[in-house]
Amino acid sequence: MAERRILFLPGDGIGPEIMAQVRRLVDWYNARGYGFLVEEDLVGGAAIDAHGVPLHPDTLARAREVGTVMLGAVGGPKWDHLPFERKPERGLLALRKELGLFANLRPALVFDALVEASTLKTEVVRGLDLLILRELTGGVYFGEPRGIEELPDGERRAVDTQVYTTPEIRRIARVAFELARRRRNRVTSVEKANVMYTGVLWRQTVQEVHDREYPDVELRHMYADNCAMQLLRDPHQFDVIVTDNLFGDLLSDEAAMLTGSLGMLPSASLGERRPDGRRNALYEPVHGSAPDIAGRDLANPLACILSFAMLLRHSFDLGEEADRLEGAVARVLEAGYRTADIHTPGTTRVGTREMGGRVLEALEALSG
Ligand code: IPM
Ligand code: MG
Fold first, then answer.
1. What is the DSSP letter of 298?
2. Which residues pair with 11 in a beta bridge?
3. Residue 249 CB less than 6 A away from ligand 1
4. Do domains 1-110+262-368 and 129-258 have the same CATH topology?
5. Closest among 282, 272, 275, 312 to 172, alpha carbons compared
C-alpha cells in the first residue's frame, strides 16, 4: 500500500483540539490499512513562540515535500501587538503563496438537520449546496506596491494594489468550469467590472475561457455587491461562484453563515498539478482560531472533519470514503448532537471530543 503522507499544522486557539479529532479519524483509517503517515509541525502563533516567525523555513520546506497539509487555525490576541508582517496570519498566507495554492474551494452546504440553525428562513436555505471558488494567491492580498508611507507634511498614506493577469484569471476560471461540470453546470463569475479595471479584465477573460473551452457550462457575470445581496435573497440560484481573493474572503463568510455556523464550513486550497500528477493542497476549516473558547472542549470540530473529507477526495482519490465521512457527519447531526455554536432547544449539547467520538461511531456504523 502506497504511503499517504500528510503534514498536520494544528496552529493556535482551538486548532489543536479540533485537529485532535481528525487525528482520531486518521487512526481509524490506518487501523483499516489506509497507510496515512502523519507528520506534525508548527504554524502561526505557535511557531512565533517557538521560532520567532509564523512559518519557519524548515516547515515550509517540509510542506513542499509532503505536498498535502491539514491546518487547524492561526492567530490570537497574544500576537495582536506584533507588526503586520510578523503576525500569525502571515504564516498561512505564506503557505498559500509558496505552495501556489491558487484555487480555494469553499463549499456551503446546509445539512437538513441544521436548517433551523440558520438565521435565515428555512425555506431560503433548505437543501442549499453551493461552492465558492476563491482565487487565493493574487489580487489585493499580494499586489505590489503595498505599504504605509510618511508624507512630507507629516501625514501618512497607505496603498494596497489589486492586480490580476490573464493567466491567473484563466487558470481559476478553468477550475470553476471543471467543478461545475461535476455539479449543476452553472458558474457565476463575480467582480466589480463597473468600477475596477481588474474586474473588466476578469469578466472578459472568464468569458473567453468559457466560449473557447466550456461552452456547455452556463455562465453568468455578477457584481460583487449584488452577489452579496443575492446570497441572502435567493442562494439557490448559485452553483459555483468564482471570484477574486478579497471578494471571495467576504462572500465565503457570508455563505458560511447561510449554513447556520461558521463551525460547519470546510475548505480546500489546491495548486497546479505537479509533474507527478499530484497537486499541492492545504485543507482547513474556514473559521478562525476562536481564542475565547480555546482549550475548553467547546469548539465545533465538524468543519475540520469535513476538511479532512475534502482531503480524502481531492488529494488521495478516496471519493467514496469522503462521501461516507460526510454521511457520518450528517447522521450525527440527525441524531441530535450539537456543539454550542449550533445548539438549539431540544438537541443534545456535546463537547469537541464527544462530537469527534460520535462521528467515529457513525463512520463505523456506515462502514459496517
Ligand atoms: C480566511 C481568513 C484569512 C484571509 C485571514 C486569516 C488572513 O479570513 O481564510 O478567509 O483573509 O484569507
Ligand atoms: Mg476570511
1. -
2. 73
3. yes
4. yes
5. 272
Distance 302 CA to ligand 2 centre (A): 18
Q: In whole angstroms, give the CA distance from residue 350 to residue 302.
A: 12
Among candidate residues 87, 164, 192, 283, the one labeled active-site is 192
Which amino acid, one-letter code, is at 223? Y
Q: Which atom of ligand 1 is least distant from the CA of 104? A: 9
The answer to whether residue 35 scores a pLDDT higher than 90 is yes
Mutate to test the pocket of ligand 1, among 74, 89, 101, 160 (most ligand atoms within 8 A of CB): 89
CB atoms closer than 10 angstroms to residue 255: 25
Per-residue model confidence (pLDDT) at position 1: 52
pLDDT band for 344, please (50, 70, 90 cuts): confident
**pLDDT tens across 63-108, in order?**
999 999 999 999 999 999 999 889 999 999 999 999 999 999 999 9
Whether 254 is in the pocket of ligand 1, judged by its Cβ within 6 Å, is no
Return the domain boundaries, the chain.
1-110+262-368, 129-258
Pick the CATH number of 1-110+262-368 from 3.40.718.10, 3.40.50.2300, 3.40.50.720, 3.20.20.10: 3.40.718.10
- Catalytic residue, candidates 29, 141, 223, 283: 141
Helix H or strand E encompassing 177: helix 166-181
Domain 129-258: which CATH number of 3.40.718.10, 3.90.950.10, 3.40.50.10260, 2.40.40.20: 3.40.718.10
Residue-wise pLDDT for 237-246, tens only, equals: 999 999 999 9
Instruction: Report the pLDDT value the prediction gives residue 261, as an integer from 0 to 100.
Output: 73
Give 257-308 pLDDT, tens digit per residue. Answer: 888 777 888 999 999 888 878 899 999 998 899 999 999 999 999 999 999 9
Which atom number of ligand 1 is nearest to the Cα of residue 75? 6
The CA distance from 115 to 117, in Å, is 5
